[in-house]
Amino acid sequence: MRAKAAIDQATDDIVGLFENRVADQKTPGSFFAVFGPDGIVLERGFGETVLGNETAPDHDTVFRIASCTKSFTCTMLLMLRDRGQLNLDATITDFVPAFRALAPEAAPVTPSVRMLMTMSAGFPTDNPWGDRMEEMTRAELDEFVSTGIRYSSTPGTRFEYSNLGYALLNEVITEITGRSYLEAMTTEILEPLGLSSTRFDEDPDADVALGYRLANGAWQVQPFTLPGVFSAMGGLFSTATDLVRWSLWLAGALEPEDTSAGPLSAASRRELQQIQRVVPEGTSKVAEFSEPTAHGYGYGLFVDEGTTKIVSHSGGYPGFSAHMRWHAPTGLGIVAFENGTFAASSIPATQALQAALNSYGELTVPAPAWPETLAARDVFDGLIRNWDTPSAEAVASVNLALDVPYEERIAGIAKAIGEVGPLTDAALTELPRELRDTPAVTNWTIAGERGRIRCHILMSPELPPRVQTFTVTTENH
């Protein structure tokens, strides 16, 4: 309900970001769907799916989603890993023996599957070139890589976006499954998740948007490419209905109580959405936060993480632009599609989600303390007022008296009371929890006549947890 209320409050701002996209000749047609944990809450379509048909796109209109495909590819790879069929650190030559790399000869490192998944294989960025390679066959790929690949950096050392890397991952899936990439993806992921409108070719019975390129003030139709080895980097067609379902299936795994079923475990879906490779400063990103964030690439997904977390990916193909993003703590997200080359639907989509988040209020709630943490707090609160070593020993971890002997701790407490005391009879004051606080941490104060004692405990990873850190400091009035 809170997600819907936030979206409702931001509706005018969100719609305003998209409604002029057609008039401004960014694209012939534009569609977005903002969703909460229970599905689509707000959607709008503008312009035309096919110029001249006067039909605006809706949630069942099929668009090419281009590089949003990469998260599907990585899902399949983690499924194979989880089955024990794939070692992510295996080199690509295990699957594509024809692969040969050229310079730099000083660092002859063969890229691994993991490097390819995380855009750190050392290949040059290749978006314009890769977008035109989808129909390449397996034989043509073998011939291409056998002539040698020029590294732009030593494999495994830095992020650089590579579509070629995902074409090679096509071959990994094919070699392990014994089926074509398209067949494996369809039967193992798309069908089990009920993504019936998501496929690797144009459905003649569906409402399919045509792609266009603006040239000399006029829109020109861009032909569809057919599936090939580069389909693993961007070959999917999909709808807002399906892409929201996909986004929610991934985002749901970030919830501790997630029980959603599917072909990939919640643990591995969380792994997809963790930063595996930091993206260097200066690389384009459009997330908006009030504090610095870490920006990086997971497995087929970009991740922005600070006190909050946003997961996203864009797709750009001749004639199409797509974007999906979600905010993990609230479950708010958006998908957007446009049928214009270089439309950059990521820009209004990012701003639209930010508008919804601005309306949401507090985005992240600190983790509550464990019951054992609060029970230990009560014990040590009593110890400050009246020390009793057996009581301390009953909840202390083995290191506590070794790090600072109890005699020193008793003296430190007496010194603190001398600075702020005498202590009053008021109950302890629990300090507000901060986002950085884990369930093993709590902080409280004890009032004195001239100030207060600030107390901190950190529990150990034992079961049951025990106090491994206990400190007191003073604050004068």
From TrEMBL:
Signal peptide span: none
Keyword Hydrolase in record: yes
Gene3D superfamilies from the UniProt entry: DD-peptidase/beta-lactamase superfamily (3.40.710.10)
InterPro entries xref list: AmpC-like, Beta-lactam-related, Beta-lactam/transpept-like
Sorted UniProt keywords: Hydrolase
UniProt domain Beta-lactamase-related: residue ranges: 17-343
Example of a GO MF term: hydrolase activity
Domain of life: Bacteria
SUPFAM superfamilies listed in its UniProt record: beta-lactamase/transpeptidase-like (SSF56601)
Pfam families per the UniProt record, alphabetical: Beta-lactamase
Protein name (database record): Serine hydrolase domain-containing protein
Organism: Rhodoglobus aureus
